[in-house]
Every structure is written in C-alpha cells, then in structure tokens.
Specification:
- By secondary structure, the chain is an alpha+beta fold.
- Helix content is 36%, strand content 22%.
- A 5-stranded mixed sheet has the order 1-2-3-5-4, with helices on one face.
C-alpha cells in the first residue's frame, strides 16, 4: 500500500544510497512477515514543516523491546540468515543525509521505521520546474519499490 502526501516531498540525496536504504528496510519488513498470516506493507510520506518523513510499516512479527536498542549496530541480526549489516548501513545513509531514523515495534503486530530528513531548498526555481522534479521523484520511488510487489504477496 502506498500513501503519498500531495505536498512538496523532495529532498537532496544520493539516489543509489536511497535505493540501498529503502531496499534494506523493505527487505527486512518482507522477511518479518514471512510467518504471519496478515501481510501488509505500507509506505507513507509525510511533510513535517522543514522536513520530510517516510514510514515503512509492516505487519510482521515485530521486534522485542529488549532487542531494539542494538538493531542499528553492525553485525547484529536476529534473522536465521543475514549479515547484520542492513540496518547499520541504513542508519549510516540516513546520518550522511542529515536525517534521523526511528523504530517503533510491537511483537506480534509489526514494526514501523520512520526516516526523516530536511526538505530540498528550491531557491529561485519556478513552480513548473518543481512540479517536473516531483513527478520524476514519485516515479523513481514507485519503480524502486515495484520489484518488492511483483510476486503478488503485497498490495
């Protein structure tokens, strides 16, 4: 499920690093939902004054409270297979873009990762240039996420 805010949600960022960031978060969400009967992955964008937030919300198994503090540390994994680097890399990418990443989780119900970073400053560009940029960014995010939805397991 995709929920985009209609307002200005552009940021200045390295596109390849954003692909890696969201690939890691979405992949973890998909893995967390493998053993659950309800499989719902939601990606939301929300404007927050001078910042933008993107939330990855799943209905997976959740993360126990006693394990949340270490999930962004390198080589920490609670999966059967995994290097323990995915969330450490995600955190580094967010930090490098002057952003923040938060996690809220409830075992048995799911997890939300919220990534927040500064909005792009437009300077003297006109509205037409901004609209063209926003349209291309929406297409970029949809194409980036499309591979995860191809097999029909998620809306």
């Amino acid at each position: 499920q995709k929920q985009y805010s209609p307002s200005d949600n552009s940021i200045e960022a390295d596109g390849e690093q954003l692909i890696e960031l969201f690939s890691n978060l979405i992949s973890n969400s998909i893995d967390a939902m493998e053993e659950t009967s309800i499989k719902k992955l939601t990606i939301k964008t929300n404007p927050l004054d001078s910042r933008i937030a993107v939330e990855i919300i799943d209905t997976g198994i959740g993360i126990p409270k006693d394990k949340i503090d270490g999930i962004f540390d390198p080589f920490i994994t609670y999966k059967h297979q995994g290097s323990g680097l995915g969330l450490a890399i995600a955190k580094k990418i967010v930090d490098d873009h002057r952003g923040s990443i938060e996690v809220n989780s409830e075992p048995g119900k799911g997890t939300t990762f919220k990534v927040t970073w500064p909005r792009k400053q437009w300077g003297g560009q006109n509205r037409e240039e901004q609209d063209e940029y926003f349209s291309s960014q929406t297409e970029f995010y949809e194409e980036t996420c499309a591979d995860y939805f191809k097999d029909g397991r998620f809306d």
